[in-house]
Design a protein that fits this description.
Helix content is 78%, strand content 0%. The protein is mainly α. The longest helix has 33 residues.
Length: 218
């Protein structure tokens, strides 16, 4: 009987740990802080069990809410960079908005037929750039929807992304010019990689300003 109860308690504790780790990761709690919080949580739950109390005594009826507050009250939420989430979200948003323009560019480098927009080429590029900008902000906001620094990250991204876009375009044109604007796969690959690196660096700086600088200010 005791073995069965102990096994049930262990299983429940594992479930609590998994849920807590998931919630705290989404809330931007750093890995080492999650480790400390999980150790504290396990000690609290085990202590309650030894005193004959249930998990509800520690976590209440709304376990998810209590676990979220556990990190918030210790001011540990929103401190992780979460670049594995932020960078893909921003870059996918940018590429989604620029899909039409990118299609035309790829067609030009691969000598495939494409539609000539004629006098609408500048409005087309401008609208695609604006769409990519907005998609990046929306995608990042959605990816960080449980992170307390989400709004701050989006604000910094909104300020820095236009400059990063101009810089990336300038760098790409400079490389293409240095290679005599050859329509080769090598030139195309170098330009694409350079543009992505500049944009990724811009996104990194936005997240850095939202997380690290604010944490140091405190």
């Amino acid at each position: 009987m005791n073995t069965t109860m102990s096994g049930g308690h262990s299983s429940e504790l594992r479930d609590i740990r998994r849920e807590a780790n998931r919630l705290w990761r989404r809330a931007g709690v750093r890995s080492r802080d999650r480790h400390d919080l999980l150790a504290e949580l396990e000690a609290e739950v085990s202590g309650a069990r030894l005193d004959g109390h249930s998990v509800t005594t520690v976590l209440g009826d709304d376990r998810s809410h209590t676990l979220a507050r556990w990190a918030d009250e210790r001011e540990l939420a929103g401190r992780a960079m979460r670049l594995g989430v932020v960078l893909p979200a921003a870059l996918v948003g940018i590429l989604s908005g620029l899909s039409v323009v990118l299609g035309a560019v790829i067609a030009g480098f691969t000598d495939r037929p494409t539609i000539d927009p004629g006098p609408f080429v500048l409005p087309l590029y401008a609208s695609a750039g604006l769409l990519g900008y907005l998609c990046a902000l929306v995608f990042v906001r959605f990816a960080l929807r449980h992170d307390p620094r989400a709004s701050r990250t989006v604000r910094w991204l909104a300020m820095l992304l236009p400059g990063g876009a101009v810089l990336s375009i300038g760098a790409g044109v400079a490389v293409a010019w240095a290679m005599n604007f050859e329509t080769s796969k090598t030139v195309f690959s170098v330009v694409v990689v350079l543009v992505l690196v500049v944009l990724a660096t811009t996104v990194y700086l936005a997240r850095y300003r939202a997380v690290v600088v604010l944490s140091h200010a405190r």
